Amino acid sequence: MLMDTPDETLAQAANGGDRAAFATLVGRHYDRILGLAFRLTGNRTEAEDLAQDICAALPAKLRQFRAEARFTTWLYRIVVNATHDLRRRQATRARAADGWGDWEIARQDEIATEREAQDWLAAAMARLSPELRDTVALVLGEEMTQAEAGAVLGVSEGTIAWRMSEVKKRLRAMAAEEAK
Amino acid sequence: MTDDRDPLDLLKAGLKAAPPPPDPAARARALALAMENFDRLQDSTEAARPKEDRPPQAGFLNGVRSMLNFLTTRPALAATTSVAALIVGVAVLLPVAQKLPVAPGQPPLATPAAAPQPPLPEASSLAQAAPPAPDTPVATGTVEVPYPAPAEAAPKVVVDMPEAEAAAPAADATLDYLAEASPRLRREAPAGGAEILPEVVAAPSVEPMALPQLDPNTEAYATAEANPVKVTAEEPVSTFSTDVDTASYALVRSTLNLGVMPTPDQVRVEEMVNYFPYAYPAPEAGQAFRTTVSVMPTPWNEGTRLVTIGLQGALPAIADRPPLNLVFLIDTSGSMEDPMKLGLLKQSLALMLPELRPDDQVALVAYAGSAGEVLPPTRAAEKDKILAALDSLAAGGSTAGAEGIELAYKVAAGMTAQGEVSRVLLATDGDFNVGLSDPAALETFIARKRDEGIYLSVLGFGRGNLDDATMQALAQNGNGTASYIDTLAEARKVLVDQLSGALFPIADDVKVQVEWNPAQVAEYRLIGYETRALKREDFNNDKVDAGEIGAGLQVTAIYEITAPGSKALKNDPLRYGAAPAADGTADELGFLRLRWKAPGASESQLTETAITGREQATDDTRFAAAIAGFGQILQDSVYLGDWGWDQAIALALDARGDDPFGYRIEAVNLMRLAQSLDR
């Protein structure tokens, strides 16, 4: 019965103290949390750490969940915010290179027969600013509409549209460079 | 990159493939951590947030678990047997205390309940704050002992109590009784004596139906006081007639755009909700309509849920619709002299003409001073002739509404051939004061014509004179819709987009009846539909008139339901309530019955659907909830708590989904406007 209960109902029951509802909810969404964390950071270890931190904080966070947003939108927002916190911490630790950049550097050390597409992805993501990276992770990676992505990132639909056109521009520039 | 695909597609493909499969060990670790923190949180905040809005079937175990937590904390372990004994005492006494009328300041029954406090002050406060001690090996031994003790002792003692005799004749009734008593015990035992007293005193003093006092504004509801919360055990069946009108929303919009807050009597929540198109699935072939049910947490009350019932009318092939006979009955009284009234009316009708088929017929009847036929029945193909007649209309004189309606019906009857649809469209600012001695006689007249197959719809124009109540009454009796047209855009929505829906009935006398399951729903409240309530027995009575549904139209109704044991309950549970049904239907929230007649038929058909509570909510239902919230804020509803404009706007924005016509964003902007006006 819990398996087909909507997220929002489960969240409400979990807030009321229903352990099974909470277990179902977090079990249902772990993969989604990890997937987005990875798309945002490009680093497996960081993504796993983020997912674990989010799971650990979820019982307390869930209390703030109101039925105003769809549960998944709300959850995505938490993942994005956690990633931003992580970036801030990394910045204060003066680690210039962030996730996708690290990944690319690591890749280059690896055997050259690694799939070319993955290298291209890392290079492309490393080139985008954090805002643009968040946007493509949601719009392309999670296949959200621009309105949904805007709701998660707390910006207007128009901003998302503008960012996506910006991404396109940069990718074209990159492709032009490579063609030379 | 030599690939000539769109770089965005490449990026998308890469990102889709990027995340590595989750590592089972990392996943298990994260989930275990989540559960650990969940348990810790339940324990530390127990007193602040009682867990009574859990599903009722879990109530008993919930109590037991809380007892376990309570007993396994270290201070409690130091005082094992005495604590167990005290808990038995509380379990027995509290249910009795709830039932007796204890006056405030007379706490004899509360005193024994408060007794645990003196011997165990640290234990009760620490039980809330201390983390659970599952790692203590002693705990396992202690857990086993006290658990059966209260569980077995309580029913035995209850049987002996004289006050409880009626409640405990059957064994299962006693168990239910105990299940009810346990959450109380759990809530009050660790909370300490100081909090118990008001709880116990307050409980019996709540009148059934006692609601927070209504704002004086709501007294303006002449015919439609907001639906109260009903107790399922007393009144399990809710019956109402469908309402596809949208006039109230346009009225609210027009009032807000004038910079004035609408008064509560201008707000009919169901008409606001029904204004918006929702993506309900279409009916299957041969069916007149299809129902869609969804269940979601209530935005304004975390202890309740919203059950949204959507009806989607079938859209018959427009191509083979029968020819349409329209009689426009146009109010040309002096009060219509206004570009926003007669001017807008002319523009609106001109917009509608191209939507008609060449074979459709149009007639114009004007009424002012004396009624007269301005344009005899004319084929829609002769557009110029109709437009010229429209242009010649001028306002002047007083309103002779009744005379005009009689003439319009006579014209309509003359136009109707076999198998054709006729409808009178009354366009007015609602001023029916002159020449009408008896409004009830007019309604009867319209109802009789309805039975002869001529329907009436009402288009309201302009402000200042608008007689909303008369418009509603006439349209309801005429099996039609009442629309309020405040802008040309609204005229387009009503007369062009919804032409087929407004003019072609697919089902008559559509009645909705929901029977709630008292085992799952202790209280319910129908939001809106106050003017459409039906008696329970009217549901099966085909003689009783109800709303019609036009081609492709939608009707949405929202119930707010409260589970038994929820802290959001407004009324105390009945002590002698019937035992809930124990068969396979015990899990259902309720049962939805629909009755309707095919147009012109006298026998009704019945459809039945169970509401399981697992129907998913969509953006559509969440948007409908936001609009229901909007309407209730305007009505100063007492059910919203501190939920207000910010939350309604956030919910509507988040759930606006696909909004090709911009209706939904318009509603958000109206909410923003209302928020500013409300300050």
Automatic annotation (TrEMBL), chain B:
Matching entries from CDD domains are given as: vWA_subgroup
Q: Where is the VWFA domain?
A: 325-503
Task: Please give the residue ranges the record annotates as the region Disordered.
Answer: 1-25, 108-143
TM spans, by residue? 76-97
Q: Does the keyword Membrane apply?
A: yes
Q: Which InterPro entries does this entry report, sorted A to Z?
A: CLCR (IPR051266), Uncharacterised_YfbK_N (IPR022156), VWF_A (IPR002035), vWFA_dom_sf (IPR036465), YfbK_C (IPR021908)
Spans of biased composition, class Pro residues? Answer: 108-121
Q: Which UniProt keywords apply?
A: Membrane, Transmembrane, Transmembrane helix
The UniProt record lists the keyword Transmembrane: yes
Q: Where do Low complexity bias regions lie?
A: 122-143
Which residues does UniProt assign to the signal peptide? none
Q: Which PANTHER family match?
A: CALCIUM-ACTIVATED CHLORIDE CHANNEL REGULATOR (PTHR10579), ZINC FINGER (C3HC4-TYPE RING FINGER) FAMILY PROTEIN (PTHR10579:SF43)
Tell me the protein's name: VWA domain-containing protein
